[in-house]
C-alpha cells in the first residue's frame, strides 16, 4: 500500500521576498509533501498583522476548509484566530516559524508601543505545538521581550508562560538559496557592498557615516549599494548618492541576475543593522565570495567568528574597513555551506514529520 503524502498548510501573512524564498525553498526541496501554500502581499503592515485572518478567510475560505496533517505558519500569521475561524484546523499539528519577532523590533523615536503585533506573536506561539526560530538571538530576544511585556500586564498572568513556550521552542536557520561559490577572479579591489532593505532599522546612517570618515582619511574605495527599496526611503540615501557619486559602481534595487553579478564583484559585504535576526543579506554576499564586516550584536556573533566583527559604531567600522583597504588586515572568506538547503533539508524534513 502506497503511503499518502503528508498534507501541509503553509501560511505566510506578510510574504516579503525573504519569506517567499523560504516557502518556495521548502516546496522545492521537500517535494514529497502535499503543500497548500497561502500567502498575503507584504504591504500595510499594521493592518496585515492584525487583520490577516479576515484576509485569509476572504481569499482562501475553500482551502482553509480542508483537512491538513500539519500547519506551518510564519510568525505574522494570527494562528490562534485562524484556528478559531476554522475550528477543524485545531486538530492538525501546528508549527510557527519566527523569521523575526516583534518584541525585538526597534522603536522609532516618539512612537507609541505597538501592542497588536506583540500579541499576535504571543498568541500564535501559544497556539502552536512547536515554536521555531531562525537564530538563537531571535529565540532569546523573543523570550526576554515576552517577560518584559507580561510584567506590564496588571494582573491574571501566568508567571511561567515564557518557560512553557521555551520548552517547545528550537532553532532552525533559514537556508540560503545557492551553493557557496569560489571567490571570483574579477573581484574589484576595495569594493564595499551594502545590500539591505532601505529602511531605518538597517541603520544606513551609520554605514554612510563610516564612509565619510574613510573619505576624510583619504582612503579609496568603491561602493555597491543595493537592496529592496520602498516608496519612501531614509533621506540619507539621497545625500550619500551625491557625496559618494565618484565612488559608486552600482546603486539601487537590482534584478536578481544583476544583483548576483555585483555580489560576485564585491570584495566586502557590510552590515550596520540594529534589527536583524539571521543576516541573510550578508550570508548571501559571503556565498558569492565577499568578506563579511559585521557588528558585534544581534545574530552576527552566532554566524561569524570574532575576526569579522568590527564592534558597534561608525568609528569602529571605519577603523576596521581602513585596515582591510590598506592591506593591514587580511581575512579569508568564511565557509557558510552549513546554511545551504543541501545541508538543512533533512532538518526541515525531521521538523515536518508527524
In short:
The chain has 354 residues and is an alpha/beta fold.
Averaging pLDDT over every residue, what do you get? 94
Return the domain count.
2
Percent of residues in β-strands:
5-15%
Main sheet: strand order: 2-1-3-4-5-6
Order of helices and strands: EHEHEHEHEHHEEHEHEHEHEHHH
Find the CATH topology of the largest domain. Rossmann fold
User: CA-to-CA gap between the ends?
Assistant: 19 Å
Could you walk me through the main structural features you see in this protein, from its secondary elements to its overall organization?
The protein is α/β, with parallel strands linked by helices. The protein folds into 2 domains: 7-175 and 341-351, Rossmann fold (3-Layer(aba) Sandwich), CATH 3.40.50.2000; 191-334, Glycogen Phosphorylase B (Rossmann fold, 3-Layer(aba) Sandwich), CATH 3.40.50. The chain is 40% helix and 14% strand. The protein contains 13 helices and 11 strands.
